[in-house]
Design a protein that fits this description.
With 662 residues, the chain is of the alpha+beta class. It is built from 18 helices and 22 strands. The N and C termini lie far apart (164 Å).
Length: 662
């Protein structure tokens, strides 16, 4: 019985073993089938997939899609390391992520890498990592790869466009049709006085405009379905502090695919500086036109003044001093002298060429002017001087600079003569960008001598200050001002490559700032003074001027000094006389502005006959004839009308007695 039971037990055990074997076999078959199915699914997924084995550091599996992505065979891909697929920049990122992961740090499961294909072409790919663990330790990872090159390039384009918007010098804004700010760049914020562009998001477009302008223009355009935008429109904008400034606006409507208006794009430029430059150009052109006109008038006026002055001087020689008429004639001489000074200012204003300039110490000129006016100032007006110790050297014309300083100091005195005050004159060097170059990105600092003349008088209203440099504009009572003083200041500063600026406020006085380019030199040298001789003589002079009154005057005045005068009002007749007897003349005085044959042409023809013959050119307007040009033509001197008889006599003797020094 016992043996039978034992046999049955063995049989039961064998039966169980057979069943377990069968089950294991079925499980193995099922696992193999499942593995086959998984491999099939692995290859069928439309994304690139590969597996990494952290124990070997290599790639343990890869699907066909991934191989097709990069152009490798499966065998080639399985022989690669994960970092072999990456560009140098992405490889550094991969190594850093692995170090962080293996040290226990949390890392994102998604990352973008740039992967290099077998052909060398680069793809931007999004990698999704699923880590595999065994006994709590990472042993590998499954990596799903998606090509995002197109999306990445689009994002890069958007980023570049956004960067361009942010870095633009122009203000750029996008607004809803209700005027709400969707986007503005930093240039827009800076232009309108805001610290950041972000603080404007959600604000209304109305904060950049006055209420009237917003209602009449901006809101109307936003709500008009026919409006497509307007280019190059000048619009006044408001800063955060309420100050208005001009802009040049370019706007366009943003539409959706159906053509519906969805937003407004606006590009704004602050044109404050541009308008100022246009105003300066317009002013310069107006000054030039007035100058040409003034030059022509001055020429004719000088031809009238010359005989007035000359005959008055001759009359004084004939009238006894105690005769009552003598004082009347002296007043005529003084009046013509004042008229000459005024015409000289007009000519200087109209002259296109610069006056002769040389190195001068600006400090000395200013101090000389202050010494002259100090004695004439009333006690109620004080002078305060502030000068740098070092010499302030500029390239300038001493007479013109003296005229500028004297003019401004006189104006300052006149502004304070009723109530008294302080005349402050300061001189220092200063580095600045020239005003006409301030808007240029390449503009550099230059060193200037800054002369400030400040008064504590009544100041000027803005509409007056804007016109003070216009010729003939004056606020003085009739008969007390010509309106040429500040126009001359402007002209002279331009000729000296400098600038003049004014700051004034009604009730608080005015400050004129003159900027002269600094000249760097070791020292100054003064030119020798001209020798002046006023004696007469017996030489024969050929005199040519188309004005009968001038030829008659000079013939009589110089005749009294002993000269023999052969006078002509025709250049052709004068040339005929000279050609007939060239050795019979000792000197020629030729008017420049002659009809038919000008004085310079006559001079050339005379020189062709006698190259060494001394000639003096005489002009009522040196706009078309400069001293340098006269000397170049062969003239010994250039004299300006009107001229005192004694000055004419001195010039004649200088030419005749010292021909080698001309």
């Amino acid at each position: 019985m016992e043996t039978h039971s034992t046999r049955e037990s063995y049989q039961e055990i064998l039966k169980q073993l057979e069943e377990e074997k069968k089950l294991r076999q079925e499980a193995q078959e099922t696992a193999a089938d499942l593995e086959g199915r998984l491999d099939h699914v692995f290859d069928m997924i439309p994304a690139g997939i590969y597996e990494i084995d952290f124990r070997t550091g290599g790639i343990s599996n890869v699907n066909d899609v991934m191989c097709a992505y990069l152009g490798y065979t499966r065998e080639e891909f399985l022989n690669l390391k994960p970092w072999d697929l990456l560009t140098p920049e992405s490889k550094e990122l991969y190594q850093q992520r692995m170090e962080d992961f293996l040290s226990g740090k949390d890392i994102s499961t998604e990352v973008q890498y740039t992967i290099r294909m077998r052909s060398g072409e680069e793809l931007r790919c999004l990698l999704n990592n699923r880590f595999v663990y065994k006994d709590g330790q990472p042993v590998g990872a499954v990596v799903i790869v998606r090509d995002v090159t197109t999306e990445w390039r689009a994002q890069e384009t958007l980023r570049s466009q956004a960067m361009a918007l942010e870095q633009s010098f122009d203000g750029i804004g996008i607004f809803t049709l209700n005027g709400e700010v969707i986007f503005v760049n930093q240039a827009w914020a800076d232009m309108h006085g805001y610290e950041t562009a972000q603080e404007l998001t959600g604000k209304n477009l109305s904060i950049f405009h006055s209420p009237a302008q917003y209602e009449s223009q901006i809101r109307f355009y936003l709500t008009d379905p026919a409006y497509d935008g307007a280019n190059d429109v000048q619009v006044t904008h408001l800063r955060k502090d309420g100050v208005e400034f001009p802009t040049r606006m370019s706007t366009s409507i943003i539409k959706d695919d159906s053509g519906k208006h969805v937003a407004l794009l606006a590009i704004a430029q602050d044109i404050t500086h541009s308008l100022r430059m246009e105003e300066r150009l317009s002013h310069a052109q107006k000054m030039e036109a007035i100058g040409v006109l003034a030059g022509g008038i001055a020429h004719d006026f000088n031809n009238i003044l010359h005989p007035l002055m000359g005959y008055a001087e001759l009359a004084l020689e004939d009238i006894p001093f105690e005769n009552p008429a003598s004082e009347c004639v002296r007043e005529i001489v003084r009046a013509t002298g004042r008229a000459k000074s005024l015409v000289s200012q007009i000519l200087s204003f109209s002259r296109s060429e610069k006056e002769e300039q040389k190195p001068i110490n600006l400090s000395n000129v200013v101090k000389e002017v202050l010494a002259l006016i100090r004695a004439s100032l009333p006690a109620a007006i004080r002078i305060q001087e502030e000068f740098e110790a070092a010499p302030c050297l500029i390239m300038g014309n001493p007479t013109q600079v003296h005229q500028v300083v004297m003019n401004l100091c006189t104006n300052a005195y006149q502004a304070m003569k009723e109530s008294g005050g302080l005349l402050k004159v300061s001189l220092k060097t200063e580095s600045r960008i020239p005003g006409d170059m301030a808007s240029l990105p390449s503009a550099t600092l230059r060193e200037y001598a800054k002369l400030e003349i400040q008064d504590t008088g009544g100041g000027m209203e803005p509409h007056v200050a804007s016109r003070i440099f216009e010729p003939y504009f004056t606020t003085k009572p009739k008969g007390q001002g010509t309106g040429m003083g500040l126009a001359m200041v402007h002209t002279i500063m331009t000729q000296h490559k400098g600038e003049v600026c004014v700051e004034t406020l009604p009730g608080y006085g005015s400050t004129f700032a003159l900027y002269f380019p600094v000249l760097h030199m070791e020292g100054l040298s003064e030119e020798p003074r001209e020798k002046v001789k006023a004696a007469g003589g017996e030489e024969k002079i050929l005199l040519v001027d188309d004005e009968d009154s001038i030829t008659m005057l000079l013939e009589r005045a110089l005749g009294r000094l002993g000269y023999r005068i052969d006078a002509y009002t025709s250049s052709a007749a004068a040339l005929e006389s000279f050609t007939a007897d060239p050795d019979g003349f000792d000197l020629a005085i030729l008017d420049v502005a002659m009809p038919e044959m000008t004085g310079d042409v006559l001079l050339k023809k005379i020189k062709e006959i006698r190259p060494d013959f001394p000639c003096i050119l005489f002009t009522g307007n040196d706009h078309s004839m400069s001293k340098a040009r006269a000397l170049e033509l062969g003239a010994c001197q250039l004299l300006a009308k009107p001229l005192r008889t004694q000055a004419m006599a001195a010039a004649i003797r200088q030419v005749l007695d010292e021909p080698g020094e001309q």
